[in-house]
Structures are given as C-alpha cells and as structure tokens.
Amino acid sequence: MSELTISAHFVHAALGGAKRNGRDTRTLLLSAGISPELLKEPGSRVTGAQYSRLMQTLWQELGDEFMGFAPHPSKPGTFATLCLLIVHAANLESVYARARQFYGLFDEPVSLRLHQDDTQAYLSLHSNVPLSDPDHFLQESLLVIWHRLSSWLIGQGITLDQVTFNYPRPAHGDEYRGLFHCRLAFDQPETGLSFPARYLKLPIIRDEYEIKEFLKTSPADLLARPDDRHSHTSQIRAIIGRDFSVQIADFETIAQSLNMSPQTLRRRLRDENTSYQEIKDNLRRDQAIYLLNREELAINDIAYRIGFTEPSTFHRAFKKWTGVTPGAYRQGERDWEPGSKDSGAS
C-alpha cells in the first residue's frame, strides 16, 4: 500500500465535512503528514499511507465515521461492530442482508440494498436524508469500501461489470478509472455496483480473529488499497513489477505472457478504462513519490531507479504527473513534516 498514490482531489474532498464543521483543515493535514503547500497543485498526489492516516485523523477528530457529510454522526465503532456481525454470515448474500438489518437499527443516512436475478447482482446505496457532500465523497468511499471489504471476506477479488452514479459525471470523473476497472455510467437512477451473481453464494472465509486484525487499519486502508482483483491491469502491474532499472517489456511481450493477442489485450484494457502506457506511467509516478519520501536517496538516483537515463527527463515527467518538480515535492514534504518548526496551525 505504501507505493500507491492518491489524487489531491480526494484529499480535499475528504476534508469537506471537517471544513464545514469549522475544523482547521491545515492542522488535520499536518497531523496526517501531508504538506498543505503541495496540495495547492491540482496534479499533486499523496501516498496511500498518508491518505490512510488522514482518514483515521478525521474519524478521531470529528468522532464521526461519516466525517461530517451527514446530518447525524456515525459513532466511532459502528463499522467495527458491523464487521463483527457479518463475519459470521454463511455467504456474501447473507453479509448484505445482515448489513441492511444492522443499518436499519439506527438513524443512518445511508443504507444498502441488494437486487439480483439469475446472472447479475446489484448493490446500491440509498441516502435517506440529504447529504452535505457536493463532491460525492461519502458515496464514492462507501462504494470502494464495500467492494474491497466484500472481496476480502470471500478471499477473491470481485470483478465488477459496471458502476453507476445517480449524478452527472463530475469534474474529477477521470479519477474513477483508478478506483473501478469497469464501465462507468452517470446520470443513473441509483448509485451502486453491478457484478456477477455467482459471487453471492461464495462462503465467507474469514473468522473473528482475522476481522479484529483487519479492523486495526480498516476501513482507512480500504480506501487507499488498490483494486486487487484479477484484472488485466493488476496482472500487468505484477508482470512489470517495480524494478525499472531494467527495460520494461513491450506490449506484444506482455500480451503473449497473458496468452492473448495484442488486439484482445488492448480491448480488455480499454474496458478497464486504461492503457498500457498509462499503467507504466502510473507505476513510475507512484514509485517516484514513494522513493522521494526516502530522503537518503538522491533525486538523480531515483531517476535512474524508475527508468530514466537522464535526470532532466525525469524532472519533466514528474512535473507533468504531479504539477511540481521532484525537488519541490521533496522540499515540501520536509518543510511540512509533522513536528517541524513550521508545522503549527495558522
């Protein structure tokens, strides 16, 4: 998880509820080890670890697992109690039934509904009251959490067929491509996940000990965890790895290793809202950000580690990816490190 990076949009969106509740968002960012200065660039990103710490900070500071986006808070421990209930379910279908019953016991602003037929299942979110969530952050987060949690409970990634949203495509719509590797449909009647119904009958393989260990970092890490199902994107990422000092295989070689033609693989990646070039660029970008947080490494060494023979080329690429140069990114992290003399609230 430490090498996954998250768009600054989701950082700003996560802070929306805290800001409306009068909290000092700069202090919250610094508590999570995130530089407020770096976030001024629209292309900036944070590490998965930083994003997880921000989620945990928001829940603790607000005393609300809905982070200020709903009229009434969801008390800390609500998600943990739900998980301890659903881990004893027989299968995934039973998990969703128990979750709906659990939510029905409280004045919760968001509920789950499961619709299914012989081949398809559709898990939808419903807001019982208006949400103070103009960026749709709460809905997006719940979709990600329930997809990742469901996959973890049955021990295999759930392949999504489509994700629908009951609102127009937002300005940050491109960011959804990294969250859900499937078709995206906006302006739909409901917000939810569509997947093959066969997953509903799969047994829950986790026990109470595992769920307690899982809850030590969840659901914060679920939001920062990459989609680990067996998508073609994930398989290609695994083939490429993180050693960019050696030449990356060309597309034809990758297709051959996956036992398919280049044309078929190109079509499959298009269905997953990505391309081979984008996968390579994102891997390099995330690895560069991860390595820049290791101050013992010189920037020129990092350039070579991620496959650039000329440091100047790396500088240009990094600025294109994030909006800042590698040096500015590292200096920003150093200047705003929690506990530094400049890290106090203004």
Brief rundown of the structure:
Keywords: DNA-binding, Transcription, Transcription regulation. The chain has 346 residues and is of the alpha+beta class.
How would you describe this protein?
The structure is a single chain. The protein is an alpha+beta fold. The chain folds into 2 domains: 77-224, no CATH class; 232-335, Orthogonal Bundle (Arc Repressor Mutant, subunit A). Helix content is 46%, strand content 10%. The protein has helices spanning 8-14, 16-20, 25-31, 48-62, 78-86, 92-104, 137-154, 208-214, 220-224, 232-240, 251-257, 262-271, 276-292, 299-305, 311-322, 326-335, and strands spanning 5-7, 45-47, 110-116, 120-127, 162-164, 183-185, 191-196. The chain has a 5-stranded mixed sheet. It has a two-stranded antiparallel ribbon with strand order 1-2. The longest helix is centred in the middle third of the chain and has 18 residues, at 137-154. The two termini are 32 Å apart. Residues 234-332 form the HTH araC/xylS-type domain. Keywords: DNA-binding, Transcription, Transcription regulation. One of its GO terms (molecular function) is DNA-binding transcription factor activity. Residues 327-346 are annotated as: Disordered. It comes from Hydrocarboniclastica marina.
Write out key terms for the chains shown.
Arc Repressor Mutant, subunit A, 46% helix, 7 strands, 5-stranded mixed sheet, 16 helices
Fold blueprint:
Layout: E1 5-7, H1 8-14, H2 16-20, H3 25-31, E2 45-47, H4 48-62, H5 78-86, H6 92-104, E3 110-116, E4 120-127, H7 137-154, E5 162-164, E6 183-185, E7 191-196, H8 208-214, H9 220-224, H10 232-240, H11 251-257, H12 262-271, H13 276-292, H14 299-305, H15 311-322, H16 326-335
Parallel strand pairs: 5-6
Antiparallel strand pairs: 1-2, 3-4, 4-7, 5-7
Helix pairs in contact: 10-13
